[in-house]
Amino acid sequence: MTDTVIYAGGAVCWRLIDDVPNILVVHRAKYGDVTLPKGKVDPGETIPQAAQREVLEETGLKVTLGVPLGVTNYVISSGREKFVHYWAAEVTEKAMHASTFVPNDEIAAIEWVPLKRARKYLSYERDVEIIDQWAALFREGVTRTFALIVLRHAKAMSRSGWDGKDARRPLTKTGVRQAASNVPTIAAWHPKRIVTSPAVRCVATVAPLAAAYGITPKRADALSQEQWETGTATTGIREAIGKRVRVRKTAVLCSHGPVLPDMLREIALATGTAMGSYIRDAAALEVGEYSVVHLSSTNPASGIIAIETHSPRI
Asked: How many helices (H) and strands (E) in the chain?
């Protein structure tokens, strides 16, 4: 957030009603309009965090983010430019039953609208452009997704400053803060599994996330830098990635800088995705950064749908 720019997050919340895709819209009391749920980023928040929180606050629905759908930007009445990032978010029956929505001064009502009607019903063309991005995924049959979150370990002590085995190098104080700061954003995709290199710096990086979700991380030698340096890691990485694609549950995979390109390459190979610079870019992470690789739950072989990269908030 700056004096001239506002950042916000929102979602295209969707569900099938009698096999017809429906989009959730909100009726805003103050503006008298019909729009998608969204809101500005609070201090200390990331945009995915804001998107998930705003959906909950405006609609009473707790959602898991799916694929990114794009960004709209426009100038508000104060003269500041506003950028709104959107994600897809399937609303489950469990979330529907747990909804806490009641009409309030900000949101007068929420409404499920069939996709075709939503295009004419929404007040703003920019919202229509976002739901059209979702509609393109629906036509391709890849709206239900899971993510492989490829995470580079947080900042560790340097090799030159450590007297011991490389695999035992601990995180620095900065690294500990990076690891903790990643938890609220990664939580937006609700990981079900954590797989990590057994190196101390990787295990420590995923520890806050594991504690937050009550997940016991699986330690995989195939993701270790030590095994990668011997030149024997390819088969192990392929097996580790292949299993995660077959299981089709969102997972965090924590490893080392030199190993990440092979991991992204194996995700591409396992999903029939053509290699390109975007794969290399997704692997070129600084310490503590991670790439969220979105895949189809119904047909992983349809290729990588989207990749987004995020940094720790320190």
From this structure: 10, 13
108, 17 contact by CB (below 8 A): no
Q: What's the CATH number where 100 sits?
A: 3.90.79.10
Query: 141, 102, 104, 134: which is closest to 36 by C-alpha?
Result: 134
**Which of 140, 167, 185 is a domain's end point?**
140
Minimal CA–CA distance to 12: which of 121, 112, 120? 112
Question: pTM score, two decimals?
Answer: 0.95
Q: Amino acid identity of 39?
A: G
Its domain, for residue 50, covers 5-140
Contact in structure between 253 and 263 (CB atoms under 8 Å): yes
Q: Edge-to-edge strands of the sheet including 145-152?
A: 218-219, 193-196, 251-255, 145-152, 290-296, 306-310
Question: What is the pLDDT, as a whole number, of residue 314?
Answer: 85
Q: Are residues 207 and 190 in the same domain?
A: yes
Q: Which residues pair with 75 in a beta bridge?
A: 81
Average pLDDT per block of 10 residues along the chain, 314 residues long: 86 97 96 96 96 98 98 92 97 96 96 96 97 97 97 95 91 98 97 98 98 96 94 91 96 98 97 93 98 95 96 92
Phi, psi of 111 (to 5 degrees): -150, 135
- Total structural domains within the chain: 2
Look at the block and give the residue holding tokens 């995700």.
Answer: 267
pLDDT at 1: 59
pLDDT for 156 equals 98
Angle at Cα 235 formed by Cα 245 and Cα 268, nearest 5°?
A: 40
Single out the residue of 314, 291, 313 nearest to residue 304, CA to CA. 291
